[in-house]
């Protein structure tokens, strides 16, 4: 995978962008000509990096940061009062960093009562129908003795997964969701995505059951899909796995067949990563 694409889709571009904006604010406190030129370059690159990262922070925070940035630029142009604005700008972007950091930490799971797992996914999990390949749910089952109920299907959207879950009996105390990529790449509107994901998570929520969901890597300017996924994860108590986890798997040169769908080596890597996250739930049995 192209390093720039990885940097953007993983959400790391947000941290780079914020760092550059803060650097620009710090440089604006100096009067030398060269720092001013560096300030302009740093600011422009920072704003672009934040924008394309599709980081779904609350809109009120983006609005506040945008307003303070505008005030800072106006005062800087007038060469008066910009120092106070620069410090306020730095403060609000530091708040943004603090709000975003938790979404880049791998969640923990609690011990479960039975050695079973339900997986809901699309073709990333189901594979492309090659009978000779072994998908990562099957690898988990073989290597770790976990009974896996695999409800993944090629081409599934959240709506399709919701229908399948409604018609299927699920007893597993742990459910992993790898779903939503086809909604982003397809014609699903954000309103449809929100309604279907809310319905899917409502169907799955049950006392004593833990839900774990892979956060969706987002193309530039697809903030709303990420915002919906995060808000519904909070609403239903779902643990979100940072999008960098999946991207780190497909970034390998031999991990995919077409930059998205996993090769046999990719399925093996995916099984290892998933077990690192879910394995502690079964370790006490």
From TrEMBL:
Enzyme Commission number(s): 3.1.1.1
Signal sequence range: none
Domain of life: Bacteria
GO molecular function: carboxylesterase activity
Enzyme class: hydrolase
Domain (SGNH hydrolase-type esterase) ranges: 119-268
Pfam families, sorted: Lipase_GDSL_2
Parts of the chain that traverse the membrane: 6-26, 38-53, 59-77, 84-105
Keywords: Hydrolase, Membrane, Transmembrane, Transmembrane helix
Protein name, entry field: Esterase TesA
Organism field: Gimesia alba
Gene this protein is translated from: tesA_2
